[in-house]
Amino acid sequence: MTHRYPRLLDLRVILVFAGLCAAAIPAPAQTPAPAGDQSIAVRYRDAADRLIGAALADSTAYRRLGVMVDTFGNRLSGSVSLERAIDWVLAQMRTDGLEGVRGEPVMVPHWVRGRESAELIRPRSYSLHLLGLGGSVATPAGGITAPVLVVGSFDELTRRAAKAKGKIVLFDFPFDTTASPFAAYGQAVQYRVRGPSAAARVGAKALLIRSVASRSMQSPHTGVTIYDSTVARIPAAALSVEDAELLHRLQDRGETAVVRLAMEASTLPDAPSRNVVAELRGSERPDEVVVVGGHIDSWDVGQGAMDDGGGAFAAWQAVRLMKQLGLRPRRTVRVVLWTNEENGGRGNLGYRDRYAADLERHVLAIESDNGVFAPLGFGVSGSDSAVALASQIGGLLAGIKAGVVERETQGSEADVEPLVDRGVPGMGLKVDASRYFWYHHSAADTFDKIDAGDMARCVAALAVMAYVVADLPEPLPR
Ligand SMILES: [Zn+2]
Q1: Cα 213 to ligand 1 centroid, rounded to whole Å
Q2: Overall average pLDDT of the 325-348 stretch
Q3: Among 116, 341, 367, 408, the one annotated catalytic
Q4: What's the whole-model pTM score?
Q5: DSSP state, 137?
Q6: How many helices (H) and strands (E) does the chain have?
Q7: 117 CB-contact burial (10 Å; exposed 0-12 / middle 13-18 / buried 19+)
């Protein structure tokens, strides 16, 4: 962390930004600092600078992301495009010379959107902008036509429960980013996940939500919904923020809006997919593993470039660069591109179960799934001593402003959570996510939104953290 050795870091930052070879400059002697700090800062400075330099100079991951998303498109679990993209990634990993390149089979849910529409019938005819929620059931063939009841929260629905029977309920819950984008998401997403069953419980025929998004240009945002098995499954979709507010304004003026919702969504039998795995085997303790990864699947709209093609490819590139630079750590670094993060998590559960007997020797699991923006550092799910040690490693990333290491406060990242639950220290790459929820799960999650420089800095941060933890004499404390 910067406050521990500011003089050293200031010098390094100046040198790095001046384009000078920081690695060639001997580290200045330290005034009082714990011996461990000094040894990580000094011992890994050269390797860290080589990884950072290579990450900033090599745009392979960015270019490959463009090829994947333009060639195969989005990658929903069960789709042909996901499996074709996985085949292509595995082939590229073999050309990189990575070791143990393999697809590890896992069965995934297979939900298909089908055609869908929502028409305002009264007070005027108008096509609403919508996306069905992942996992939704279909409407009857002719659709559902009903008056709309707009409520702002679960509490308001409870208060107005008597008015909900036979209606289409719309939750117009705002996305309040005052605390942080992820705090806003954590609140608003409750309506996407639990809204349909809450509405069904009070007799609603269908459920609409205001898209879970921080900015909208009439682009609805999808995402998974989960039915409670004790109530009827009703069709569920997200409206654009603009259209949710339109319906809310009509109600506030005393108008009764009537909508016809038609959805063909269906859930087919589970389909085969794979987690993508490749390694750089450790030189001394190959059975001890640092996992670094993201998810290869995406929603079925846009290109899944932010979520999570870019995050996944940044993790892959981090390991590829170690290989290219001849930086082989003591422990194995394993890149894992999980499948089915978006609508089931079967990839991360499959990984946990496949390696159940090896999790004692999983030293760390790093996830990169918060969008591809300027990296800030890492959130740690683990012991205080793990956070403290990771903070020292973060000091190596201060030159690219990616060195802030903090205890994770929002819960573990989704794909490493099953490992964290079994005692493996977890980390999430933190980025400046102020624009993430403009694009997330929408048609606008496309390659043009990715900044090549930001992606390179994400690669650098992942590479330095994964490499140093994999090479330390002692495992990261649990
Ligand atoms: Zn994601």
Answers
A1: 15
A2: 98
A3: 341
A4: 0.91
A5: P
A6: 14, 16
A7: middle
